[in-house]
Sequence to fold (363 residues):
Amino acid sequence: MKDDGVVWALAGHFALMSLFAMGGANAALPEMYRLAVETKQWMTDRQFADMFAIAQVTPGPNVIVVTMIGYHVAGIAGAVVATVSMCGPTCVLAYFVGGLWDRFKNAPWRVIVQNALVPLSLGLIGASTLVITQVVASSWTAAGLTAGTALLTYFFRMNPIWIFLAAALSGLFGLI
Amino acid sequence: MPSRDPAVKVEPSRLQILIAFATISLFGFGGVLAWSRRMMVDDRRWMTAEEFNDLYALCNFLPGPNIVNFSAVFGGRIGGVAGALTALVGLLGPPFAVVLGIGTLYAYFGAFDALRRMFAAVAAAAAGLLISTIIKMLAPLMRERFGASHVTMAGVFVAIGVLRWPLHWVLAAAIPASIALAWWRRR
Fold:
């Protein structure tokens, strides 16, 4: 599958996504799902869910899910291209806007734009939560695990790493 | 030893930046920004608390992975393009290697029943974490009186989450609309 067409497709789609992923990489998960599972059919539902899981338990930023997708689609070249495309455009933007940002520290438009973008990223992350939950909560036990984790991390502020570890072990040994 | 006076800032070297971001990446599980704050402001004194807050606001405002933007801007302020690249390599290098390792194992063993159950369980738990995170993030907006913010948020949620429209088309319409509403409301 390592043909140039696929690598270019990864580059183009992730570069575009990079500029619209308001609220971080997790906000772009529905778009990644649409691209990788629905439009391009690079992977199944389950494979996408697995990659999401791997990215969440890997230390470091969540953006690493695009590395996983790129690697699955086109090997090392795909991993590098997907990662650079997802980070490159927004980093260049950040690098230049960083200077302007300081200069307009007290400008009224800066506050307005900042406030206007908050509900958009909340909407995106909410949509992301909905899409991912629909994909992964495919059985009653999975849905129970999702609900349980949500409650534990919300009410008890538990570090999710322990929940992930418990979930991984119970899955591995066939308890769920 | 760095000075204990919070007003005194320390200028890091390239190697220190690389190591710092690699450390943030590897140990900042479940909240990379909280970790970077502790390291940048409290431990190393590379930034003041105000500078950190301002940069944090910028990275939330910009599209793309927040902590990735943070590294690019922070590295860039200290060492230009080379500094930005150093910070990025530090941040993304370790998880990149880890993910390639797991990806290779996944390609060979991913179809085994035990591993399939394991991934499914972790994915289900990770979705739960997304749910509690978004509920916490929604709290400030829910305390506000119902208005334009709620409408734009709901619009984006439905367009992406339910109708599954392409991200860039939805935002190409929603960003100008939301800014226009915010502008109009303030006058």
